[in-house]
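Retro notes (design track)

What went well: tokenization of the new backbones is finally stable.
What didn't: we kept losing track of which sequence belonged to which structure.
Fix going forward: every design gets posted as structure first, then sequence, in one message. First example under the new rule, 151 residues:
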């Protein structure tokens, strides 16, 4: 496992960073996003979608749990906040093992369903405009991708 840290000083920086990451993702990739409310998980996801070629506006899917977009590959945006006290399996494997890229906000709430290979991103609030992103790569592929966008 390789860990990387990156500091963002604005919304634009976060989205450009996520866009660069999105451009390097491949079918079947799973990314998890953790961090408090307002940390920037959805903001990050918007940039990610752009990097994946999604043209539609990406909004928080809080009331639907899973939203699907079409970019150069299918893009699945999950927000599993409402599953906090549930151990319900909504058929996550079909998304994780499919031909699309999946990003999961509040991934800690579906810990038992997450695939072993994933990129775990934690966003920490520092001040109004500053965030610290920690990226943990559990596979060689994600390690390479992180190196490319950070170093
Ligand atoms: N550097 C930054 N990166 C991301 N968001 C930021 C940053 N600075 C300020 N923000 C603000 O923080 C908020 C993040 O909200 P959101 O992305 O919806 O968070 P979450 O999905 O984690 O609840 C937005 O209002 C955004 O404008
Ligand atoms: Mg959100």
């Amino acid at each position: 496992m390789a860990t990387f840290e990156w500091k963002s000083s604005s919304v634009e920086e976060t989205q450009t960073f996520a866009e660069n990451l999105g451009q390097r993702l491949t079918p079947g990739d799973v990314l998890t996003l953790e961090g408090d409310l307002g940390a920037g998980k959805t903001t990050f996801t918007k940039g990610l979608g752009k990097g994946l070629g999604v043209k539609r506006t990406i909004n928080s899917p809080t009331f639907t749990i899973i939203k699907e977009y079409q970019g150069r590959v299918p893009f699945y945006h999950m927000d599993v906040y409402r599953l906090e006290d549930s151990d319900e399996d909504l058929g996550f494997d079909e998304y994780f093992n499919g031909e699309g890229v999946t990003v999961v906000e509040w991934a800690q709430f579906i810990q038992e369903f997450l695939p072993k290979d994933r990129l775990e991103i934690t966003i920490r609030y520092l001040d109004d405009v500053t965030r610290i992103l920690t990226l943990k790569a559990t596979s060689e592929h994600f390690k390479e991708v992180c190196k490319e966008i950070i170093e």
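Added context from the reviewer: The beta strands are 2-8, 30-34, 66-70, 74-79, 101-105, 119-127, 130-137.
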